[in-house]
């Protein structure tokens, strides 16, 4: 036999026997692929997050335990097969109550964070600004969360974002400070419930990859240039601005960049001008358009 052929045969035998020895340990090769397991510091970060959850009626975090070390198998957690880093955290619709711990920042590779329809918030009920520091985040869903603060402009730092849902994120009235009792001569005190609002959305233009934006219920009434801001996000496919107190839809656009827009929802904003003068008619990519309760009137444009 040629020496190199012998070597090859030897390799084959070695490979076969190592496969056999693995098989005799009862591990199917398929399972070997899924070997990458949770990293200890990421597991600790998740446990710290759990530590700030005050109520978990569905018990979904019951699998999050120190004794069960591989956090990649915990409910709501998805890791990379290759590296074991946590890539996704999905706790949507779980009725969790509590504060979102900044410990999550240890999940440096996080791409997908879905806390929608939970009762979570940041420290003191504020918007958890540290969420704006994730480097790889593509998906952020805070649907129906409430915060006692404004939206931070730092959201514009999430330049890899493709999906952003802030709909119905509204703020609860902040606690009345006990110091008000010191104002003993007070005659009139106005304490309106201040819903989440923002006076500046220019940070949005830094989200170069944004495809989905939902800000339903956020008062944008003071932002006259909102359309020009949105028009600088050519990647947008879906835009929902229901009930945002938008003042009008008859702006003119000198150049339309929204060539990928398929879904537009402007319902529940009082426009009250002729429908034909609306800016969206030239966006031919739109497949789904919702305009209920906008008080737009008159004939549709004829082109
Ligand atoms: C979650 O909360 C919703 C609304 O408050 C409630 O209808 C539902 O029953 C709750 N689910 C559980 C499992 O607690
Ligand atoms: C993990 O591996 C499976 C099968 O090998 C693959 O389908 C899946 O996309 C991988 N997931 C990640 C996050 O890499
Ligand atoms: C989270 O829990 C830790 C430890 O119990 C506590 O020190 C910290 O103040 C909590 N943070 C928040 C934001 O609730
Ligand atoms: C985040 O954005 C703020 C405000 O836009 C900016 O001042 C800050 O330097 C940014 N931080 C990082 C880490 O990029
Ligand atoms: C307000 O009144 C409280 C007592 O009710 C007192 O302890 C506190 O120092 C007062 N604060 C100011 C700013 O006067
Ligand atoms: C619209 O938003 C306002 C706050 O800006 C809120 O009071 C109202 O309930 C919302 N309406 C609907 C139908 O969501
Ligand atoms: C939105 O904000 C404007 C300006 O602050 C305010 O006048 C208006 O009442 C708000 N709209 C709603 C529905 O709260
Ligand atoms: C989009 O349109 C505006 C004019 O409305 C223009 O200034 C801008 O350069 C265009 N392109 C992008 C990528 O925003
Ligand atoms: C929209 O289309 C109409 C008719 O085709 C044209 O007159 C108008 O200039 C277009 N507007 C923009 C912003 O392209
Ligand atoms: C847009 O509509 C408003 C009423 O909502 C009207 O006051 C304004 O003159 C209109 N602007 C243009 C350019 O048509
Ligand atoms: C389940 C499994 O295959 N675990 C193995 C992962 O890899 C380490 C060494 O890298 C082994 O010790 C484990 O048995």
From TrEMBL:
Subcellular location: Membrane
Pfam families: LRR_14, LRRNT_2
Residues making up the signal peptide according to the UniProt record: 1-24
Stretches assigned to the Disease resistance R13L4/SHOC-2-like LRR domain: 101-267
Membrane topology term: Single-pass type I membrane protein
Source superkingdom: Eukaryota
Gene3D superfamilies: Ribonuclease Inhibitor (3.80.10.10)
A cellular component term, taken from the record's GO annotations: membrane
Main location: membrane
Keyword terms of this UniProt record: Glycoprotein, Leucine-rich repeat, Membrane, Repeat, Signal, Transmembrane, Transmembrane helix
Record-annotated Leucine-rich repeat-containing N-terminal plant-type domain positions: 40-80
Protein name listed in UniProt: Uncharacterized protein
Organism: Panicum hallii var. hallii
Lineage, top ranks: Eukaryota, Viridiplantae, Streptophyta, Embryophyta, Tracheophyta
């Amino acid at each position: 036999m040629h020496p190199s052929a012998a070597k090859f045969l030897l390799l084959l035998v070695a490979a076969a026997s190592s496969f056999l020895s693995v098989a005799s340990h009862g591990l199917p090769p398929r399972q070997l692929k899924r070997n990458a397991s949770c990293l200890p510091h990421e597991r600790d970060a998740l446990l710290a997050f759990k530590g700030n959850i005050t109520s978990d009626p569905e018990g979904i975090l019951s699998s999050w335990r120190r004794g069960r070390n591989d956090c990649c198998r915990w409910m709501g957690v998805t890791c990379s097969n290759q590296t074991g880093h946590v890539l996704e955290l999905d706790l949507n619709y779980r009725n969790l109550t509590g504060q979102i711990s900044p410990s999550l920042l240890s999940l440096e590779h996080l791409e997908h964070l879905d806390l929608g329809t939970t009762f979570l918030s940041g420290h003191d009920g504020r918007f958890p600004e540290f969420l704006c520091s994730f480097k790889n985040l593509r998906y952020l869903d805070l649907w129906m969360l409430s915060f006692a603060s404004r939206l931070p402009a730092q959201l514009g730092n999430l330049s890899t974002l493709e999906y952003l849902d802030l709909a119905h994120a509204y703020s609860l009235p902040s606690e009345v400070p006990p110091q008000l009792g010191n104002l003993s001569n007070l005659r009139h005190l106005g304490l309106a419930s201040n819903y989440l609002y923002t006076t500046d959305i220019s940070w949005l233009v830094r989200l170069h990859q944004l495809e989905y934006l939902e800000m339903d219920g956020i008062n944008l009434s003071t932002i006259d240039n909102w359309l020009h801001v949105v028009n600088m996000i050519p990647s947008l496919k879906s835009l929902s601005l229901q009930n945002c107190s938008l003042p009008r839809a008859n702006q003119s656009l000198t150049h339309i960049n929204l060539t990928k827009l398929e879904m537009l929802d402007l319902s529940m904003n009082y426009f009250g001008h002729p429908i034909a003068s609306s800016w969206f008619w030239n966006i031919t990519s739109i497949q789904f358009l919702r305009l209920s309760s906008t008080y737009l009137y008159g004939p549709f444009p004829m082109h």
